[in-house]
Automatic annotation (TrEMBL):
This is HTH cro/C1-type domain-containing protein. Residues 56-110 form the HTH cro/C1-type domain. CDD domains: HTH_XRE (cd00093). One of its GO terms (molecular function) is DNA binding. Pfam families: HTH_31 (PF13560). It comes from Pilimelia terevasa.
Length: 476
């Protein structure tokens, strides 16, 4: 244990000698404050590296493995393992999951290694009183934001040069406008084209088009009536949902949530309740990339229980499987993948734009390759991902970057360094085209993994290329 005494400006960190008992209270959280005799607050903090290391050593010895044996299995050095067991180094989530798999601990080591996830900031919106503003500066850089209608009017936003204010359209449509829904066909074609571009270019190029398209279709819907109005808002919801995904790909999680909420609102106007459930799947994805297993599972399983079309429930089950993989629960993970396959097979399909991936031939198989890495089986993950990557269209650079980065990481983590470096250059080419923030997280993990192989010539050379790619400015 460690304890910290004093105020935030004067902190003393010392080793606790003996037991510290908080009067009648149980230490149920990561940090638990108690009062000292001097009136200062004492913060009891779990020494997670020591707790993890002690359990790791116990499990290793029970399995009859020496440090040398364990190092060969998990592809970490004997010195690294020793430091982990003695609490000198803090375990990463990836290291804990690898040990879980090697010692068949069913996620127990991962639980000891994990820290409580920070709660996502809540965003309150009042769409009825806000104005959307798309801006462009003299260098061509674009930005998007919202301001209150009152601020826009008082501050003169409507007159700013270089900014396009996307306000609410007039609420009184003319008879001609109410009858004319022909424009929807063009916007549907535009949406399909933009999704195709999403596989080839970065968020900086896509977001202005998507923001403008979402606003245009929403505005058109305001001028229509009956079934055409519902069709317009259904399409506006798809535009907004995809805008949220591209915002996340650009590293803007808060904006991603905002756009997803707009998609739910537009879908509700059209009578489509499925988008609300899919919004939970999207939020679960954000939680997954934050390594928050519990939140990922909770959001995904809530969506899976909704009375919506099978495809959305199948995508929710896939996300739940990824959450269970983060938690190290192999049984629950593969049970969720089986549920996903059943749901996706049962979906009848329709003429609407497809929710979720359109380029992955077998989403469940690709997800299986993904979760095998998180479950501590990188060699198996690389094999499965390799098969599914070969089935992707050649021009699907975003999908190739995403799953290719994960496969390269799996290869490196399983000690297949030459092959990892061999396929890595293609992954970097795809990444530089699409500039995905989510792919970047795996590439950073890959760089850390390769540094453990600093004596390997190919690892050193590819690490230089990887470092350059991660620091190359985005192409606007």
């Amino acid at each position: 244990m460690r304890f910290v005494i004093g105020d935030p400006l004067s902190v003393v960190d010392a080793t606790l000698q003996g037991d510290v008992k908080a009067r009648g209270s149980k230490m149920e959280s990561f940090a638990n404050p108690v009062q000292s005799a001097t009136g200062n607050q004492v913060m009891i903090v779990e020494d997670r590296p020591m707790l993890f290391g002690t359990e790791l050593r116990r499990r290793r010895l029970e399995a009859g493995l020496s440090l040398t044996d364990m190092a060969k299995i998990v592809h970490y050095s004997k010195s690294h393992l020793s430091k982990m067991e003695n609490g000198v180094k803090s375990p990463t989530a990836e290291f804990a999951r690898r040990c879980d798999a090697a010692l068949r601990c069913d996620g127990q080591l991962s639980q000891r290694a994990s820290r409580p996830a920070a709660a996502a900031a809540a965003t309150e919106q009042n769409e009825a009183n806000e104005v959307w503003m798309l801006t462009m500066d003299s260098t061509g850089e674009t930005g998007f934001g919202t301001v209150s209608r009152r601020t826009a009017l008082v501050g003169g936003v409507f007159g700013q040069v270089g900014g396009m204010v996307l306000g609410r359209p007039p609420v009184e449509p003319s008879a001609k406008q109410a009858r004319d829904s022909a424009g929807l066909t063009g916007f549907r074609v535009l949406f399909d084209q933009v999704r195709g571009l999403g596989q080839q270019v970065g968020p900086e190029a896509l977001l202005p088009v998507l923001v403008g398209g979402t606003h245009a279709v929403r505005s058109l819907g305001q001028h229509l009536g009956g079934g055409a109005r519902k069709e317009a808002f259904r399409l506006a919801a798809r535009f907004a949902e995809y805008t949220g995904w591209i915002a996340q790909e650009g590293g803007h999680d808060r904006e991603a949530v905002w756009w997803t909420d707009r998609a739910v609102e537009f879908a509700a106007v059209s009578g489509d309740d499925g988008m609300a459930a899919y919004a939970l799947v999207r939020r679960a994805l954000i939680a997954m990339y934050r390594q928050d297993a519990a939140q990922t599972i909770a959001l995904a399983e809530t969506a899976q229980r909704a009375r919506v079309r099978p495809r959305i429930r199948g995508l929710a089950a896939q996300r739940a499987a990824q959450g269970y993989a983060l938690a190290g629960d192999r049984t629950a993970c593969f049970r969720a993948l089986e549920q996903a396959r059943e749901f996706l097979a049962a979906d009848p399909g329709d003429d609407e734009p497809t929710i979720g991936t359109t380029h992955v031939v077998d989403p469940v198989a690709m997800s299986a390759g993904w979760v095998l890495y998180d479950l501590g089986s990188p060699g198996d993950a690389a094999d499965v991902l390799g098969v599914e990557l070969d089935r992707l269209p050649r021009g699907a650079y975003r999908a190739r970057a995403r799953y290719g980065a994960r496969r390269t990481l799996a290869l490196a983590s399983s000690g297949q360094i030459e092959q990892a470096c061999s396929v890595g250059d293609q992954v970097l080419d795809a990444y530089l085209r699409v500039r995905s923030a989510t792919v970047r997280s795996d590439l950073r993990d890959l760089l850390r993994t390769l540094r453990r192989w600093h004596s390997h010539a190919s690892a050193r050379e590819f690490s230089l290329h990887l470092t350059d790619a991660l620091h190359t400015p985005a192409r606007g």
